[in-house]
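EI: anyone free to look at a 236-residue chain?
SC: sure, send it
EI:
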Amino acid sequence: MEQRVSVERVYFMKNSKYRQFFFWENLISKNENLTEGYFRGITLTKESVFINTVIVNSDTGILYDWWICFPDTEAALGFIQNIYITSAYNSYLSPKEDYVAIIMGTPEELLDALEDSENCSNKEDIPEMRSFLEKADRLWVEEDLFSAMRDFSSEFNERWGIIGPVFFYFNVFRDAQEVGQYVVDGYEAEKMTAYFTEETGITREQWQDIYTSVYDNDFMRKKFMDILNNKICKML
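SC: here you go
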């Protein structure tokens, strides 16, 4: 009689410095720019990953909308897990703050503190917030980390990106080509194509020349990020 042996898959958590809050705490203490541009000035390569992070507080008029390029997917995930989500959760639970704070603490520590605070809004959502933190940490076992992170962003955005008094979401992009097309698609979706040249100072054809040249041309690389963070319309 044939016996079937079940094989249980073994998961190994990636031992990445970017997963550890200590790494990010050190950068915060040094006042390094963690929210926009090329992360730590690291040169753009084919392994680089782009992220667009958004936090909106309609009551205080805050629109946090920045583009960041990380050297690889591990760095991008570490930022989302240790910096962005903490800031987004803080804005959601402390909606009267008229700024987006970079928190010197883990997201778990933030939730623990606010859960005991009388000034915490939306406290009933904290258990679900903890659940998303656990999902983010489980991504470190994935072999295809980029695809897993993109799937996580879709689920995260579906829950927290719903337009309301405070909402937030992030998108992850494999390369500059995806970013460039995303920007064009955004203007088309908002029926604002006619304003593209007015706001950026370049034509759509010139924009395409820029985002297809960033890996070979240092001037184009700098211009690309400058346009993303300083010129394009903030499209919600």
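EI: The first helix runs from residue 21 to 29.
SC: 👍
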